[in-house]
Amino acid sequence: MFKKILIANRGEIALRIIRTCKELGVKTVAVYSEADKHSLHVTFADEAVCIGPALSKDSYLKIPVIISAAQITGAEAIHPGYGFLAENANFSEICAESGIKFIGPSPEMINMMGNKANAKETMRRNGVPVIPGSDGVVTNVIDGKAIAHEIGFPVIIKASAGGGGKGMRIVQDESEFENAFQTASSEAVASFGNGEVYIEKYLENPRHIEFQIMGDQFGNVYHYGERDCSIQRRHQKLIEESPSPIMDAELRRKMGEAAVLGAKSVNYEGAGTIECLVDKYKNFYFMEMNTRIQVEHPVTEAVNQVDLIRQQILVAGGEKIETMPKDPIGHAIEFRINAEDPEKGFRPNPGKIESLHFPGGFGIRIDSHVYQSYVIPPHYDSLLAKLIVWGTDRKIAIKRARRAMEEFTVEGVKTTIPFHLEVLENEQFLSGNFDTSFLDNFLKEKNIN
Q1: From the CB of residue 355, how many other CB atoms can be counted at a distance below 10 Å?
Q2: Mean per-residue pLDDT for 240-245?
Q3: Which CATH architecture group holds 132-201?
Q4: Which of these, 432, 419, 23, 397, lies nearest to 233 by C-alpha position?
């Protein structure tokens, strides 16, 4: 087991990792920008190192500075969390060259599976169903149009190194293609430093289902069931749940076997997520793999009664997967509480939290780094907290979520709490009969762009 781990991240995920490390008896090092000096992950870590100014490019994305912080403090390993450098193969490689364990996949695995086009081709070769589209990246508009005509409009252009809806454009017909291709590529460069894109058939109104997997250094790969991430706006997830309301035993078996097969085909090590789209006939198609822990991992933890961060650290330390996955117990839903104004198109709303009260009670979990009088910096994502509710079934989980959301008080900044309360009263959501178009339609009815 490692004696000291540096967390190359901020906010709630950094604090989440610190808590598990403390339970394992592992010392922690927090890194922070000048804007985050009052964040709780800095307070609760055993050591903290300032790594630069507020902007991410000058701090949390500064690989040499983070490596130096690890070396100076004697950290044997680095946990990247999610976002920032979590899927950066170069960072993983530099960690290895510096004698520091990267708690995540090898550079080769990140390049193979973190690159969306490469991952799709790898899955296809191993018999996992994939969405029709280009064989790898598309380098120019002419080739892209030819592929789009071959598979049929609508198509979706995606950044190969992307995620979170960045570098992604839906194209309904040829007249839109050139502008969408160039825009997606430019956005990919700005967001990921890589302008490569690929093209897929756009499946209209599918479910977005992902499977949590974990692999160790002994060739063992297991899945921990699925999460339904269909409630999303512009490809940004807002509500996730496990198990999926559409899942049955046969579909779970097929998708779980495909997820494990895909991960085993590359000797995958660590935590990862196989993301798929499921059509109305319950046909599923591999979409991409995230080679890191996900924001929504707590719902999987709740229904499996397992600490995935603990598993991740133990696996990185050379141990076998400690806890075997089991059939889901009850139902869990996660709500992202963001400092955003839903009435103004979910515009970020940084500022000072004047008053704060977290809900409590049985089946309630809050993952957050904020507190009363905390000043939300404008430089990063707007996630304030994750409310995770658990119930013996979906109906009970929804009732518990409604009660908890009514208790959740944040004053001083606008948040997505009122939006979540409205969703919790929506008949389509309550029925579980929704798809990725749900939120767009929901917001359109309210005249919110």
Answers
A1: 10
A2: 98
A3: 2-Layer Sandwich (3.30)
A4: 419
For the ranges 152-166, 186-200, 234-248, the lowest mean pLDDT is seen at 152-166
Q: Model pTM?
A: 0.89
Q: Which residues, including other chains, have CB under 8 Å from residue 369's CB and lie 6 or more apart?
A: 10, 11, 12, 14, 15, 39, 40, 41
Question: What does the block give as tokens for 426?
Answer: 């929506």
Instruction: Tell me if residue 292 is catalytic.
Output: yes
**What is the three-class DSSP state of 434?**
coil
**In the numeric block, which tokens belong to residue 25?**
């008896």
Task: Give per-residue burial for 47-77: e unless 16+ CB within 10 Å, then b.
Answer: bbbbbbeeebeebbbbeebbbebbeebebbb
Fold of 4-103: Rossmann fold (3.40.50)
Q: What is the CATH number of domain 207-445?
A: 3.30.470.20
Given its phi and psi angles, is residue 338 left (phi above 0), alpha (psi -120 to 50 degrees) or beta? beta
Strand, helix or coil at 355? strand
Spatial neighbors of 36 by CB under 8 A, at least 6 apart, are 10, 42, 377
Catalytic residue among 16, 207, 292, 365: 292
Structural element, H or E, at residue 67: helix 63-73
Q: How far is CA 135 from CA 71, 160, 195, 413, 428, in A?
A: 41, 12, 17, 46, 37
Write down the mean pLDDT value for the chain. 94
Q: Is the pLDDT of residue 209 over 90?
A: yes
